[in-house]
Amino acid sequence: MELLWGSLLLVAACVPAAQGWPEDHVKDADLDMPQPLHLVEEGNLKVLTAAGLTQMLNQTRFLMVLFHNPSSKQSRKLAKELGKAVEIVGKNKNGVGFGRVDITVEKELCKEFDIEKAPELKLFFEGNRTEPINCEGVVEAAALVVWLRRQISQKAFLFTDTEQVAEFVKTRPLVIIGFFQDLEEEAAELFFDVIKDFPELTFGVMSISNAFGRFHVILDSVLVFSKGNIVNRQELINDSTNKNVLNQVIKPHLTGFVIEYNTENKGLIYELQVMNHMLLFASKRARSFAMIMQHYKLAVKEFQNKVCEGTILLWGSWMGSRDL
Ligand SMILES: *[C@@H]1O[C@H](CO)[C@@H](O)[C@H](O)[C@H]1NC(C)=O
Ligand SMILES: *[C@@H]1O[C@H](CO)[C@@H](O)[C@H](O)[C@H]1NC(C)=O
Ligand SMILES: *[C@@H]1O[C@H](CO)[C@@H](O)[C@H](O)[C@H]1NC(C)=O
């Protein structure tokens, strides 16, 4: 508990006193919040019960779940490959999660998802449990990653009507939409290719001819909407620089998340030119870890676009021999 408040204090330290720290608000939210479950991880996959699956669905935009039977050799092999796929995608990458369900134990889940044989691999999108996407015939780690990235890219929302866009962007904190002359040409293909690495963000595409001049888009462009307002627009008019432009438009929006500070991500700090970082050290193996992260993320929400502009909240995992 001490550590928990320590982390919130750490965040609070950057708020000028006059600004008013929304402390009461955070505490109220805290009281209402159910305690998160501590999910055990084996071979990079969270071991999921019915409650664990519900929790993960709530927290993860893309959730890959392996329904497996521990006594089947094929299941064990796929679990191992999926574990390797996690390493390739990046452990604790925001927006994507990996779990497994033991079909010999979780009978209710088998019934709900109509699991008759193991292994079965399913991808859930935005917490929707009614129609997960089946991943069939893919058995090798690198191929699983290719499959997953393609799904992420295909989940860009395709708009055909500007009213639809206006409604959609109002309901989401952040949406990045590519407008293209031709959705099958080079610039659009590049857009789909780039966004597959950003499962945490919401993307859409629209053909310029369908926009009828709304949003003032004439040339291939990418527009960023925040709560319904256009906050950035960039034209994609030079094949040799489009990729850079897209990355420059997209990456700054990763700062709204808590990012694990690890060898893979540490470069991001410099890339985003973030001046202030706050680093929380926490042991992933501690039972209180899920709760600490829940509070830390809550703190991010409170500060986003308010006080610490350009601040990135990070967490480092501490894999010492002793748990906290
Ligand atoms: C997750 O749970 C919280 C609180 O229990 C709820 O407010 C939120 O809408 C849920 N999010 C999703 C994506 O289901
Ligand atoms: C879940 O997905 C199905 C199929 O795509 C859709 O019909 C349904 O409305 C979705 N449910 C929610 C709550 O979004
Ligand atoms: C495209 O960008 C490259 C690299 O910056 C530049 O050399 C080239 O002149 C640009 N082309 C056009 C048509 O602007």
Automatic annotation (TrEMBL):
Any Pfam family hit: Thioredoxin_6
Superkingdom assignment: Eukaryota
Span of the signal peptide: 1-20
Keyword Isomerase: yes
Gene3D superfamilies: Glutaredoxin
Keywords: Isomerase, Signal
Domain Thioredoxin: 47-149
One of the GO BP terms on file: protein folding
InterPro entries: Thioredoxin-like_sf, Thioredoxin_domain
Protein name as it appears in the record: Protein disulfide isomerase like, testis expressed
